[in-house]
């Protein structure tokens, strides 16, 4: 575990001690603020039956910046080290492959979680600034951030796999966003084809939009937890196999 902690802290330094990490944090904070402002403007213009949390996480802007977070925070994890040659040195050191893979994933998830702290504070500031009762329930706020963390666990793992497959950060980023966009649009299959075909329950099960819809409404469900965490573990296992193959090929 000592080696794992050392590797994790090394990766965290790459996020928090470089301008790139702070630029990503500023970008996500700005986008979260714009999404919240857009939702509040909608509340001002017309009566809305949904909570402020629900509307904020269902603006078109949300999915635009949300899906782009993952290639930004994962594309350099393995590909940059492969390009610079430091991955070969790391893999020949007395560390285990799982320590390398899981330390990079853990650091990416810690940084990803940090990105949402300003967003949580923005919702809290609504009550602090306006001195009004919050336009959302604690269940809706907790559910929205819970499903964002669950999706982040799976999507970060996909980014790790993409980065492990290539030495180019650009290719890794394109591959990541491509897979995530495909996963996003699979949620619209039942909208296009209807509910009458046999595979409709499966597409409902993998639909990120539907899970966000329920969690942001304060309705917790264990099935999305199983789906996203299982997907994360499976993709991390594939990443382990890719990195381990590279290790023994040398």
Order of helices and strands: HHHHHHHHHHHHHH
Mean pLDDT: 84
Outline type: globular
Summed up, the helix count is: 14
Biggest sheet: strands, sense, closure?
Answer: none
Termini gap: 25 Å
| Gyration radius, rounded | 19 Å
Characterise this structure.
The protein is mainly alpha-helical and 250 residues long. 80% of the residues lie in helices and 0% in strands. It has helices spanning 2-16, 19-45, 52-56, 60-74, 79-84, 86-91, 97-115, 117-130, 138-164, 169-186, 189-193, 200-205, 208-216, 222-249. The mean pLDDT is 84.
Helices and strands in order:
Layout: H1 2-16, H2 19-45, H3 52-56, H4 60-74, H5 79-84, H6 86-91, H7 97-115, H8 117-130, H9 138-164, H10 169-186, H11 189-193, H12 200-205, H13 208-216, H14 222-249
Main traits of this protein?
single chain, mainly alpha, 0% strand, 250 residues, 14 helices
Task: Offer a concise description of the structure.
The chain is mainly alpha-helical and 250 residues long. Helices cover 80% and strands 0% of the residues.
């Amino acid at each position: 575990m000592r080696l794992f902690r050392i590797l994790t802290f090394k990766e965290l330094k790459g996020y928090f001690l470089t301008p790139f990490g702070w630029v990503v944090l500023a970008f996500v904070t700005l986008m979260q603020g714009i999404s919240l402002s857009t939702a509040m403007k909608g509340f001002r213009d017309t009566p809305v039956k949904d909570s402020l949390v629900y509307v904020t996480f269902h603006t078109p802007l949300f999915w635009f910046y949300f899906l782009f977070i993952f290639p930004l925070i994962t594309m350099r994890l393995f590909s940059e080290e492969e390009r610079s040659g430091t991955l070969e040195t790391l893999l020949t050191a007395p560390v285990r492959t799982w320590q390398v893979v899981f330390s990079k994933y853990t650091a990416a998830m810690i940084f990803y979680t940090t990105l949402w702290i300003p967003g949580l504070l923005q919702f809290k500031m609504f009550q602090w600034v306006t001195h009004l009762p919050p336009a959302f329930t604690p269940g809706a706020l907790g559910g929205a951030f819970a499903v964002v963390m669950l999706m982040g666990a799976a999507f970060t793992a996909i980014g790790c796999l993409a980065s492990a497959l290539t030495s180019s950060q650009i290719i890794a980023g394109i591959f990541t966003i491509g897979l995530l966009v495909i996963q996003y649009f699979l949620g619209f299959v039942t909208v296009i084809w209807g509910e009458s075909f046999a595979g409709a329950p499966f597409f409902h099960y993998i639909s990120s939009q539907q899970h966000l819809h329920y969690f942001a409404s304060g309705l917790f469900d264990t099935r999305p937890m199983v789906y996203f965490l299982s997907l994360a573990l499976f993709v991390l296992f594939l990443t382990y196999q890719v990195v381990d193959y590279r290790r023994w090929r040398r």
